[in-house]
Design goal:
This protein has helices at residues 2-28, 46-56, 66-82, 92-104, 107-127, 135-216, 221-246, 266-275, 293-313, 369-379; strands at residues 279-285, 319-327, 330-337, 383-388, 394-401. The chain is of the alpha+beta class and 406 residues long. Among the domains are: 2-133, no CATH class; 263-406, Histidine kinase-like ATPase, C-terminal domain (Heat Shock Protein 90). Helix 4 (92-104) packs antiparallel against helix 5 (107-127) and helix 6 packs parallel to helix 9 (293-313). Residues 301-404 form the Histidine kinase domain. Residues 162-195 form a coiled coil.
Length: 406
């Protein structure tokens, strides 16, 4: 409403200006205005002034009712012509209204306004009040009408084009915002998986080592001290990995980020599990070749999660074995153990606390490690199998496709 008030005020001021110009032309430069009579034309008088003013009034509502205003402006202009006053340049109001119809209404209505203006002018010219005008004069008037109409249509098309550009920019901005939110959600999920893998593994190792230290603290303080030292080293490793993971979230762009672990770090992981009390072996089959960084990290996390589950749930005296097989178009990673499980308790059946209940008959629990592994493997088009082994124990295996031998 406030916008319309401002529009009406501007149009009212324009109507006043058009009226002032039209009256000046009609009174001082019209036919017979300087005392020189023109044959066939009436001198300016009060009636003529009223008609000129009536022709200018519709300009005040030119944007709200342009076609109606055009019709209202053409009536007094036609009357001026019919009564023999001769409008001359006093037809400015009609031109303004014709422009307004072309600029603020659709093509059909705009063409109707142009046809109406041309038809009324042709009718007035045919009536021929006063001396007949040359054909060139009529041509000038027709060209002026068409030019004013064309300017109005051009401005309307330009406004429509600019509006379309603004809408497109708004749509692109919304699309970018949606993509940004999706990327942020994906990054949060990735960081959550990484943190879970790091925390679950290292905390599990520290828990087992702390339990062993507590059992031998009284009988063998030296062995308990070694276990506590291992706990300290494991804690430092966990902190280092967590810093590397969450460093990307820090505002300081100079945060030191270390490389992500991969299959090259499996020997150190196996040694760590041995120190924690799980007899673990590592076998590498085939010629190691270049592996994509994402697949390399996913393979490492799979081994880490599989060994962590074996350490927590395989039971005393269990052994684990990690097998990494490099094939021309596939990377095969397997973690298997021969444990019978620690029995029910804790957070459910430990052998399947992270597994899908439909995979190998394992019962689901509350963990998320193997769920995250499943997402990692699926992300790179791999095949994951999780479940108990036929001869006892548990197995986690993933096969990652390598494109073009990589």
């Amino acid at each position: 409403m406030r916008v319309w008030r401002r529009v009406l005020v501007r149009d009212a001021l324009l109507a006043v200006l058009v009226a002032a110009v039209s009256l000046t032309l009609f009174t001082f430069w019209g036919p017979g205005a300087r005392g020189v009579p023109v044959e066939g034309l009436r001198d300016p008088d009060a009636l003529g002034v009223v008609l000129v003013l009536l022709a200018c009034v519709p300009v005040a509502v030119r944007r709200r009712w342009p076609l109606t205003g055009l019709c209202a402006a053409l009536v007094p202009e036609t009357a001026l012509e019919g009564l023999g006053y001769g409008t001359g340049l006093t037809g400015a109001a009609g031109l303004v209204m014709l422009y307004s119809v072309a600029a603020y209404r659709g093509l059909a209505m705009a063409l109707g306004g142009l046809a109406l203006s041309l038809a009324l002018y042709a009718t007035s010219a045919a009536a021929g009040a006063g001396a007949p005008a040359a054909w060139s004069d009529h041509l000038v008037v027709v060209v002026a009408l068409v030019a004013v109409w064309g300017v109005g249509r051009s401005l309307r098309l330009r406004r429509a084009y600019m509006e379309e550009l603004r809408d497109r920019a708004a749509r692109l901005e919304r699309a970018r915002a949606a993509d940004r939110r999706a990327a942020q959600a994906e990054e949060r999920a990735r960081i959550a998986r990484e943190l879970h893998d790091v925390v679950a593994h290292h905390v599990s190792v520290m828990t087992v080592q702390a339990s062993a230290a507590r059992r031998v603290l009284a009988s063998d303080p030296g062995l308990a001290g070694e276990a506590l030292t291992a706990i300290e080293e494991t804690g430092r490793m966990a902190l280092t990995e967590m810093r590397n993971i969450v460093g990307v979230l820090r505002a300081d762009a100079r945060a030191e980020l270390g490389p992500q672990p991969g299959t090259r770090d499996l020997p150190a992981l196996v040694d760590q599990m041995r120190e924690a009390g799980l007899a673990t072996g590592l076998a590498v089959e085939g010629a190691p070749g270049p592996v994509p960084a994402g697949v390399d990290l996913a393979a490492y996390r799979l081994v880490q999660e599989g060994l962590t589950n074996a350490l927590r749930h395989a039971g005393a005296g269990a052994t684990a074995r990690v097998t990494v097989r490099y094939e021309p178009h596939e990377l095969d990673v397997r973690v298997e153990d021969d444990g019978r499980g620690a029995g029910d308790g804790g957070d459910g059946d430990g052998r399947g606390h992270d597994a899908n209940p439909q995979e190998g008959g394992a019962r689901a629990g509350r963990g998320h490690g193997l769920v995250g592994i499943r997402e990692r493997v699926a992300l790179y088009g791999g095949i994951l199998s999780i479940g108990p082994r036929p001869g006892g124990g548990f197995e986690v295996r993933a096969r990652f496709p390598l494109k073009d031998g990589q």
